[in-house]
């Protein structure tokens, strides 16, 4: 928005004042007129329809009735006081009840007069009832007024706001005042050629009709226009950042494939690359030859072979005289990458080192020296890699694992580790739906590994209710008899941590009785035990000294036990889809058939059913992520809360995927011909962009 009048503090709007302004700021973050204009109704009520009392049923969300008041009285004492009234039409009688504001309501109700009543219907003792209805004295004028405002907006409010008479109706009045005074000040922010091409309503009309629509069609047009605008400017910002980086940051050129890459590929690689891995390596190869800094997101399910692709990209960099590093969010993950890469390259092939918070000072000193003199080619670690004292001779490639756990500032620190910024490869094992990836990582190019390595059998997922518990125990014994190991995972949700821990301990006791010593050995791991105890228990399981690991979700990331072939998830209905999928990825690491068993209580919510059915139906992380996005909305997908990018007011990334693609394509076309937005028809865009981004100039990366 950012048109001058709309930056006016909210207290100056007619009907607000200081006290109401304070509560609007605290409760709804409405600080100025723009914020109020963009506090959109969450639904509209059709006020053209009237019900007869006989046809009312409590399943209806709200009803509107014309009836005559036949009786009223105040019942009860002090705290139980209530006003009860009866109204009647030609089909029956309905009871009305109020528990608050009794004096005011009673004063305004006259027996014998007819009223237009509006509210949520209920049943009390088998009779129709309505509590706290909206009441208007019936008259032809009132009917006309209601008929004119066919779709009435409903706004979100809070208990605190209601104390200041700012319920939905109160907020509606403020928005009405605002539009009366300032509708003429709403400026257009899209060029005419875009408005015509996409058949968009004017901006001023869109704001009027999203609050007070003339009819259902106009409401749909208003929503479409405002969604388009929101997604368009989001993509404009992301693609502008990408464009700037291409112009501003030159990239090191990896122009040759040399002995490191070739020897590894021909003699050390223990398996054939999948077609998806080959495709991604080709995309990376092209990126690193263009003389522009690569910024690529590599998406792939757990076990799809992202680490091998990262390693081969690193060997490409080493062949061209550069050093490389991998940054992981936790020590466990950094150590796992280190061990995986050491196993793949073997001894005396290329020097690899691990740098984390627990690296001893003596080892640190050696690492620092070898980095500075260029001897050390691959450094793997945590945040320790970006400390100022870590200096590289010639850093050419940075691999970042699970980017959503790293801030943009941390990435930027790595860029500064070389005169020409290193190429960046971001890996994530959290499958992100395409539209979400284009928004969260819209300034990165995206590669996807969408097939599993040969020899990996898809994990079989089964859902059992509590009454099949003995059958599941029998299955576990069969698998253990084959020499396999089993995970049993319990939820750990902060709100009910005590209860969860009790479930874990109760479960542990039941399993200990069912799988007694000395034939069976168990490990137990949960968040509250000491790190050294946890490590000890983990190691016993990794070495195969225990056959069953009973744990909370601490094992979600970073445990790789190829011999573990069964994952049992208790209370599976309490986990989110992406978490269930991540947990399932802990098995299926070896060549044996693996199983994921979802245990749940008998009664499931509709969402719970969809989640568990989705898990049974598919192993495809992207399908799962799409369902997750539809069920939970983008704000709850892991890593998106802190991004700030998903603060969308009208658009919905799961429902508006096609529109997002159209907006992105439109922005790409504009930048292809007018990257600085200097042409006369794009001046309006340039101004709107600058205003939205607080004066940010085109040569600054945000």
UniProtKB/TrEMBL annotation:
Helicase C-terminal domain segment(s): 458-630
Domain (Helicase ATP-binding): residue spans on this chain: 287-449
Keyword DNA damage recorded: yes
A Gene Ontology molecular function term of the record: DNA helicase activity
EC numbers: 5.6.2.4
Keywords associated with the record: ATP-binding, DNA damage, DNA recombination, DNA repair, DNA-binding, Helicase, Hydrolase, Isomerase, Nucleotide-binding
Alphabetized Pfam families for the sequence: DEAD (PF00270), Helicase_C (PF00271), RecG_dom3_C (PF19833), RecG_wedge (PF17191)
Catalysis performed (reactions): Couples ATP hydrolysis with the unwinding of duplex DNA by translocating in the 3'-5' direction; ATP + H2O = ADP + phosphate + H(+)
Record keyword Zinc present: no
Superkingdom per UniProt: Bacteria
InterPro entries assigned: ATP-dep_DNA_helicase_RecG, DEAD/DEAH_box_helicase_dom, Helicase_ATP-bd, Helicase_C-like, NA-bd_OB-fold, P-loop_NTPase, RecG/Mfd, RecG_dom3_C
Family: Belongs to the helicase family. RecG subfamily.
Purpose of the protein: Plays a critical role in recombination and DNA repair. Helps process Holliday junction intermediates to mature products by catalyzing branch migration. Has replication fork regression activity, unwinds stalled or blocked replication forks to make a HJ that can be resolved. Has a DNA unwinding activity characteristic of a DNA helicase with 3'-5' polarity.
Protein name: ATP-dependent DNA helicase RecG
């Amino acid at each position: 928005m950012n048109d001058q009048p709309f930056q006016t503090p909210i207290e100056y709007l007619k009907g607000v004042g200081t006290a109401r302004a304070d509560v609007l700021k605290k409760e709804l973050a409405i600080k100025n007129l723009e914020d109020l204009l963009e506090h959109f109704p969450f639904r509209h009520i059709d006020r053209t329809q009237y019900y007869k009392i006989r046809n009312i049923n409590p399943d209806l969300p709200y009803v509107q009735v014309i009836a005559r008041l036949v009786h009223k009285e105040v019942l009860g004492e002090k705290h139980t006081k209530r006003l009860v009234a009866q109204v009647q039409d030609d089909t029956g009688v309905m009871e009305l009840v109020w528990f608050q504001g009794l004096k005011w309501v009673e004063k305004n109700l006259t027996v014998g007069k007819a009223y237009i009543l509006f509210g949520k219907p209920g049943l009390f003792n088998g009779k129709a009832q309505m509590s706290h209805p909206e009441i208007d004295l019936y008259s032809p004028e009132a009917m006309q007024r209601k008929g004119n405002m066919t779709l009435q907006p409903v706004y979100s409010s809070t208990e605190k706001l209601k104390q200041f008479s700012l319920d939905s109706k109160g907020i509606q009045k403020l928005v009405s005042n605002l539009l009366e005074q300032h509708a003429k000040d709403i400026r257009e922010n899209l060029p005419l050629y875009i408005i015509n091409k996409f058949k968009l309503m004017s901006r001023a009309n869109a704001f009027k009709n999203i609050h007070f629509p003339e009819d259902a069609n106009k409401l749909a047009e208003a929503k479409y226009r405002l969604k388009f605008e929101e997604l368009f400017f989001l993509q404009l910002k992301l693609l502008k950042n990408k464009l700037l980086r291409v112009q501003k940051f030159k990239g090191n050129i990896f122009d040759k494939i040399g002995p490191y890459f070739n020897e590894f590929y021909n003699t050390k690689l223990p398996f054939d690359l999948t077609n998806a891995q080959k495709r991604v390596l080709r995309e990376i190869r092209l990126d690193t030859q263009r003389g522009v800094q690569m910024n690529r997101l590599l998406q792939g399910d757990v076990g799809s072979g992202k680490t091998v692709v990262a390693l081969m990209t690193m060997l490409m960099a080493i062949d061209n005289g550069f050093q490389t590093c991998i940054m992981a969010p936790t020590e466990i993950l950094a150590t796992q990458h280190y061990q995986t890469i050491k196993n793949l390259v073997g001894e005396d092939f290329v020097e690899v080192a691990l740098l984390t918070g627990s690296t001893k000072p003596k080892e640190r000193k050696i690492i620092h020296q070898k980095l500075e003199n260029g001897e050390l080619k691959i450094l793997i670690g945590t945040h320790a890699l970006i400390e100022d004292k870590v200096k590289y001779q010639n850093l050419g490639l940075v691999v970042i694992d699970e980017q959503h756990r790293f801030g943009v500032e941390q990435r930027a620190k790595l860029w500064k580790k070389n005169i020409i910024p290193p190429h960046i490869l971001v890996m994530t094992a959290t499958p992100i739906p395409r539209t979400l990836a284009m928004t969260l990582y819209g300034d990165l190019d995206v590669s996807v590994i969408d097939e599993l390595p040969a020899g990996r059998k898809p994990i079989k997922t089964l859902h059992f209710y509590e009454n099949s518990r003995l059958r599941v125990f029998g299955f576990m014994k069969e698998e253990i008899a084959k020499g396999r190991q089993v995970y049993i995972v319990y939820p750990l949700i902060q709100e009910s941590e005590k209860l969860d821990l009790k479930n874990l301990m109760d479960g542990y006791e039941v399993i200990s009785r069912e799988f007694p010593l000395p034939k069976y050995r168990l490990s137990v791991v949960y968040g509250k035990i000491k790190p050294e105890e946890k490590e000890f228990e983990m190691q016993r399981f990794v070495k195969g000294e225990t056959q069953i690991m009973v744990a909370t979700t601490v094992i979600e990331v970073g445990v790789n036990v190829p011999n573990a072939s069964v994952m049992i998830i208790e209370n599976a209905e309490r986990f989110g889809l992406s978490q269930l999928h991540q947990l399932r990825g802990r098995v299926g690491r070896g060549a044996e058939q693996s199983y994921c068993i979802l245990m749940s209580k008998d009664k499931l919510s509709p969402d719970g059913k969809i989640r568990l059915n989705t898990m049974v139906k598919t192993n495809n992380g992207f399908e799962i992520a799409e369902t997750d996005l539809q069920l939970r909305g983008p704000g709850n997908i892991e890593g998106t809360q802190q991004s700030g990018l998903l603060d969308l007011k009208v658009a919905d990334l799961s429902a508006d995927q096609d529109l997002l693609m159209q907006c992105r394509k439109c922005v790409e076309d504009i930048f292809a011909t007018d990257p600085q937005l200097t042409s006369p028809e794009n001046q309006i865009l340039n101004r709107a962009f600058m205003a939205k981004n607080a004066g940010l100039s085109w040569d600054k990366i945000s």
